Structure formats: structure tokens, C-alpha cells
Amino acid sequence: MATIIYTSPIFGPVRSRRLGISLGINLMPGDGKVCTFDCIYCECGFNGDHRPTLPRPTREEVRRALEERLTSMAGNGEVPDVLTFAGNGEPTAHPQFADIIGDTLMLRDRLCPKARVSVLTNGTFIHRENVREALMRIDNNIVKLDTVDGEYIRLVDRPAGHYDVKEIISNMKLFNGKVIIQTMFMQGLEGVCPDNTGEEFVEPWLKAVKEIAPQMVMIYTIDRETPTKGLKKASHEVLDAICQRVRQMGINCSASY
Asked: CA-CA to 47 of 20 to 30 Å: which in 109, 155, 160, 182?
């Protein structure tokens, strides 16, 4: 089983297909995975296979580690394109998430003012006002929406608790366009999950995208080995066709293969 467990609280920099040279910020323990989803395609593996023994980093630990790394990079003539909250689980689940965002923006402005701040979130905490307010402050508020089909979400994203995609869409609308939708398309695996590139999935998804009216949509497919074996990538042609349909609605869209 392929697994990438990221160090905490800072990892990288790594080259992101969608964001450029990214310095990662992991708000989950550095020795395991804690996520409100348990996606069958997650590069970090399944939640149950990588239970951490360490605690989450504190706000002060994140601030200190980020300041040290940015100072070191600047001294070596390195500048990240983006500071990305990602890693071994859902970043907005951290109880000090909003305060950590504030610290990160302060350090960014002082040490690498041209870098963007991004958060990759599955949206399970955007019903919380303080989380939404924090996400409104950053450059790239990137929220997952793989489909609007509840059964597909149950089979593929596998939420750990309550998850109503209609509520997620309603909460995404509260960003008033300051949100980027991120969607994983793949051609499925018989007996495991359906192909979400078919019209029965794409057309309702496009309708939701239009309702949310995001600043951008990022679609992508499998890039690394997945914990569930045999999952099939979506082809370039399929992704390009979906991307074009998003653009025809007047919404910027990128495809990563």
C-alpha cells in the first residue's frame, strides 16, 4: 500500500501540479493520519492503517516552525510560490485553525510577501463561521466537491461523520465566489466505485458549480499510487472536455493529469 505521511508542522517544499512550489503546513500529527474523510484514492492511505501517537502541533509550534523555515529559505535565496495547508488530514479540524491562519498571513507578509496562502479542505467544517472567515482571508480557498451524488461520496470519499452534500454546496455559496472548487475525476473500478466522468455525474456537478459560482475550478485525476488498487485515471481527453464545459459557463477551469 502506498503511503505518504507528512512531517508536522512543516513539510517540503514540493512541486504541486496546481499551485507551483509549495511549502506545506500540516496541522495533523506527523506520524499518522487524522481526517474527516477516508478517501479510497488518498496518497496518505486509510485512516485506520495509520493511527497517530503524537498530538496535533499547537498554534505556537506551527508559528515558530514556519518562521524558522521561511527565514532559512529566504537566506538561501529560495521563495515558495505558495504556503499550503494540507498534509495528513483535514486542516480546518484543528481547534486553533483560524488563529494559525492569522499567524501565517502575518509571517507571509513579513518574510515572503509574494507567496500565496492556500488551504485544501474537504469542506466538513465550513459550516463554522470562524472557519469560513479564516478561509475568506487567504488567497486560495480550495474546497473539495468530487460529486453531488451521495452514494458516490459514501463509496469514494467515505466521510467519517455527518456529511450532506446539499449542505456543503449551500455553505460554499456563503463564500460569495471567493472559493475554488477542487474535483477528483476517475474512471472507477468495477465492484468498488463507479466512473464519475459519465454524464449522470458530470451534468449535476456542473449545475452545482454554476450555483456556487466559484472564482475557479480545479479538476484532476489520480497521480500517485492509491491505497485501493486498480483505480483508473481519467484520460486527458475526458478532463479537457469537462474543463471546457466549465469554461463555457464563464468560470475559469484548470485540468491536471
From this structure: 182
The pLDDT, as a whole number, for residue 101 is: 98
Q: Stretch 12-37: mean pLDDT, rounded?
A: 91
Mean pLDDT of 131-145: 98
Q: What is the mean pLDDT of residues 185-195?
A: 94
What average pLDDT score do residues 172-201 get? 96
Cβ contact 145:181 at 8 Å: yes
SS3 annotation, the chain: CCCCCCCCCEEEEEEECCCEEEEEEECCCCCCCECCCCCCCCCCCCHHHCCCCCCCCCHHHHHHHHHHHHHHHHHCCCCCCEEEEECCECHHHCCCHHHHHHHHHHHHHHHCCCCEEEEEECCCCCCCHHHHHHHHHCCEEEEECCCCCHHHHHHHHCCCCCCCHHHHHHHHHCCCCCCEEEEECECCECCCECCCCCHHHHHHHHHHHHHHCCCEEEEECCCCCCCCCCCCECCHHHHHHHHHHHHCCCCEEEEEC
- Note the pLDDT tens digit of each residue in 38-63: 999 999 999 999 999 999 999 999 99
